[in-house]
Amino acid sequence: MILLDGKKTSSDIKDEIAIKVAELKQQGEKTPHLAAIIVGNDGASRTYVNAKVKSCEKVGFNSTLVELPDTISEADLLAKVEELNNNDDIDGFIVQLPLPKHIDEHKVTLAVSPAKDVDGFHPESVGRMMLGLPGFLAATPAGIVELLDRYDIETSGKECVVIGRSHIVGSPMSVLMWRNSKIGNCTVTITHSRTKNLAEITKRADILIVALGKPEFVSADMVKEGAVVVDVGIHRVEDASKKSGFRLLGDVKFDEVSPKCSHITPVPGGVGPMTIASLMMNTLQAIDMK
Ligand code: GUN
Prior knowledge:
Blueprint: E1 2-3, H1 6-26, E2 33-39, H2 43-59, E3 62-68, H3 74-86, E4 92-95, H4 105-111, H5 123-131, H6 139-150, E5 159-163, H7 170-178, E6 187-191, H8 198-202, E7 207-210, E8 228-231, E9 235-238, E10 246-249, H9 254-257, E11 263-264, H10 271-286
Parallel strand pairs: 1-11, 2-3, 2-4, 5-6, 5-7, 7-8, 8-11
Antiparallel strand pairs: 9-10
Helix pairs in contact: 1-10, 2-10, 6-7, 6-10
The chain binds guanine.
């Protein structure tokens, strides 16, 4: 079994980006600038956004963190988005999800200028991805593609099963795996909460991508011998033996599934760091979108 080491791969990618940024600066070009809006105080979202800001520093980007209270109105948040759209120094920005219940996420996603949509969530970005046109790819699926590519995983003609149909991961992931490109050309099945006989379907998978958001959902009996398993889940569970008071679990029962796999991503240190690397790559790409 080979571990798909997202932490190491992400660090390599960030080193490569840092070199490109240093070259840009040397040529007198503008320093890439990523902004992130975070609404409220959700602990996990804070951790992710802080990691994004830290990565900006590592690669030499400028970063701006916009922190807003969870009482903010939808109109005020939309005004902030518009302000970032119009700020010429900011090349790309994200609005960390989830947002408080009183705010319509779709409205906010639609308000982000497609030229600055480094999360790849705007309908224009999604449409471009569907059509194979240049554009921003959603960070998590694009990070997974990059990870599979850097480990030389053969995908062409393989059976890929994606568990979960979210707009952020499952749906765009399925598209990237059927696209006609180096990582792609799979026969893709997407499963969801209404899927019948799930284990029968997942056992067909040469590549199993698990993104349903339930801790340790996938057990060994659901996985084919020799499969490549990508675990997108990340859950904090209480653990008094840890200094932090919690430990992290994925959507896959790692201990029992990993011996059956040819390759598997760990949690933490698998998909999470790749999402951030991919956001950095999108931000570098954003300079050319203006
Ligand atoms: N929440 C969970 N994943 C993501 C992501 O990739 N981008 C944003 N903006 N919010 C998220």
